[in-house]
Specification:
This is PIN domain-like protein. By secondary structure, the chain is mostly helical. It is built from 8 helices and 3 strands, in the order αβαααβαααβα. The protein has a 3-stranded parallel beta sheet with strand order 1-2-3, sandwiched between helices.
Length: about 160
């Protein structure tokens, strides 16, 4: 019997409720997962992000709208950021060879002034690691009066311990 991923198992058992059902609740949010979801969502995905670097322009507004929605509904959010990546021997970020090739091809297209194809090429070159955007998200949270903590190690374990 094959082992099914947790997401598949959980997807079959999900229930949808309005966000207002969380009124008065404190919700722990894994910051890495939150950022990754925004980086991959079509409404906030920026195809030239790997070329330009920095924080995605559309992401700030989207996050601030969501934070305001939670406030309006009476939901308290606490974002939890990963701490030390202890025990990892290779501290260099892993970039796949495919991603490197796509990135190089995108710059070649740029040099050839093929603007139409450049955007698609950079879009296929991957997305930044969520950890590279931590400081940007922390600044947004601070400016909006939202609490956050940095876990000693894994945010997942810290989010779980806040539920107790």
């Amino acid at each position: 019997m094959p082992i099914h991923p947790l997401d598949e198992w959980a997807a079959a058992r999900t229930q949808s409720l309005p966000l207002s059902a969380l009124k008065g609740a404190v919700v722990g949010i894994d910051a890495s997962h939150y950022i990754k979801q925004h980086l991959l969502h079509p409404s906030t995905r920026e195809p030239l992000l790997v070329a330009l670097g920095g924080f995605p322009f559309a992401l700030r507004n989207s996050i601030e709208r969501e934070l305001q929605l939670f406030k309006d509904l009476g939901v308290t959010c606490i974002f939890v950021f990963d701490g030390l990546d202890f025990g990892t021997k290779n501290q260099r970020p892993h970039v796949s060879a495919e991603s490197v090739r796509a990135f190089e091809q995108a710059w070649e297209l740029y040099d050839q002034q093929q603007a139409d194809r450049v955007v698609d090429a950079f879009s296929g070159a991957g997305t930044p690691r969520p950890e590279s955007l931590y400081r940007f998200l922390q600044r947004i949270l601070h400016n909006n009066g939202i609490d956050y903590i940095v876990a000693p190690y894994s945010a997942a374990a810290q989010v779980r311990s806040t539920a107790d």
